[in-house]
């Protein structure tokens, strides 16, 4: 059993034995049979199935704040069997490949090789600071938060380890690697802006942009020319107060540009993974309920990332733009 990342391809294979001509994959997701796939071959052939896209269809990540967990699914009960017939019927051989995995919507990089997985031991689901060595997170002074963690087991569990303003450092929570929460003074801009995103490990991670934010609204429209002539008392006339150009299909979108403030070089992977994430949320003040916050989905519109280092840049700061993942004028029908 493995903890697999289905944002990258996942290959499962079986070698046909003498006298057998087909292999059948039965793929279950959360104990429900979803796919049955047949492939044919001859003795000695390695029959390979790529299953990540099939599994990923059943992972829809949500985030509503607080201790929200990454969505994961199980493939327990899935198997590849081989048959003597070409159509996958009859009695299967005793040689089978079990596909019992826990899957999350993370990914591996090219240099990490084929079939990327998560650790099998309890571990933080974050990138390590390779400059300092160890795990570090960055939060405003006096603000609590959540750290994503995988807890070993069969199946494993995905949790968020909570901490408060006065939590003693480091945080271990059954991990062999300690994690430190570094406090950043951003009082000039309140508590900054919190972005929550799905990182490369398939976990929900917070990342604060400590400096200013700039929000903007853009609109689009279509127009058509209308006939405003009316007839009265045998003559044609029109009102100069009635427009001949009429607006329809008016829509609007908002975007926000955030400045990160100064981060150490070891935090570069956080911003890279944010750039590559397809599930992102912004926590912002609720304009309709003063004193409360709302969580809104956003799409990162920044499309490039230049790695900054203390040697080249001295002070490392990033500016990124996000589009709201909905139309500003409500058009949900």
Write the layout of secondary structure elements.
Elements: E1 2-5, E2 11-15, E3 22-29, E4 32-40, E5 46-50, H1 52-56, E6 72-74, E7 78-83, E8 96-99, E9 101-104, E10 123-124, E11 135-140, E12 145-151, E13 157-163, E14 179-184, E15 193-198, E16 204-209, E17 213-225, E18 230-232, E19 235-237, E20 245-259, H2 268-276, E21 280-285, E22 293-300, H3 310-313, E23 319-324
Parallel strand pairs: 1-9, 11-14
Antiparallel strand pairs: 2-5, 3-4, 3-7, 6-9, 7-8, 10-12, 12-13, 15-16, 15-21, 17-20, 18-19, 20-23, 21-22, 22-23
Structure report:
This protein has 333 residues and is mainly beta. It has three domains: 2-112; 123-215 and 252-324, no CATH class; 222-247, no CATH class. The protein is built from three helices and 23 strands. The chain has helices at 52-56, 268-276, 310-313, and strands spanning 2-5, 11-15, 22-29, 32-40, 46-50, 72-74, 78-83, 96-99, 101-104, 123-124, 135-140, 145-151, 157-163, 179-184, 193-198, 204-209, 213-225, 230-232, 235-237, 245-259, 280-285, 293-300, 319-324. The longest helix is centred in the last third of the chain and has 9 residues, at 268-276.
């Amino acid at each position: 059993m493995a903890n697999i990342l289905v944002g990258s391809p996942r290959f499962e294979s079986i070698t046909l034995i003498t006298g057998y001509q087909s292999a059948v994959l039965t793929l279950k997701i959360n104990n429900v049979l979803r796919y049955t796939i047949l492939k044919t071959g001859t003795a000695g052939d390695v029959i390979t199935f790529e299953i990540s896209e099939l599994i990923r269809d059943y992972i829809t990540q949500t985030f509503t704040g607080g201790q929200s967990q990454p969505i994961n699914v199980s493939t327990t009960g899935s198997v590849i069997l081989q048959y003597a017939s070409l159509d996958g019927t009859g009695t299967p051989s005793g040689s089978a490949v079990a596909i019992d995995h826990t899957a999350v919507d993370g990914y591996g990089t090219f240099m990490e090789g084929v079939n990327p997985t998560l650790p099998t031991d309890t571990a933080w689901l974050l990138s390590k600071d390779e400059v300092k060595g160890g795990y570090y997170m960055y939060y405003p002074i006096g603000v609590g938060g959540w750290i994503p963690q995988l807890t070993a087991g069969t199946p494993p569990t995905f949790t968020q380890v909570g901490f408060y303003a006065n939590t003693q450092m480091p945080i271990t929570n059954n991990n062999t690697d300690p994690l430190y929460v570094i406090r950043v003074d951003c009082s000039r801009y309140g508590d900054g802006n919190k972005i929550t995103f799905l990182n490369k490990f398939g976990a929900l991670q917070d990342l604060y942009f400590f400096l200013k934010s700039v929000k903007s609204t853009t609109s689009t429209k279509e127009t058509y020319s209308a006939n405003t002539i009316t007839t009265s008392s045998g003559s044609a006339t029109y009102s100069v107060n009635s427009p001949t150009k009429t607006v329809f299909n008016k829509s609007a979108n908002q975007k926000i540009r955030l400045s990160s403030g100064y981060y150490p070089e070891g935090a570069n992977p956080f911003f890279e993974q944010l750039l590559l994430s397809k599930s992102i949320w912004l926590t912002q003040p609720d304009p309709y309920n003063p004193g409360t916050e709302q969580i809104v989905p956003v799409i990162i519109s920044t499309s490039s990332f230049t790695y900054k280092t203390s040697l080249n840049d001295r002070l490392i700061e990033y500016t990124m733009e996000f589009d709201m993942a909905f139309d500003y004028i409500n058009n949900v029908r």
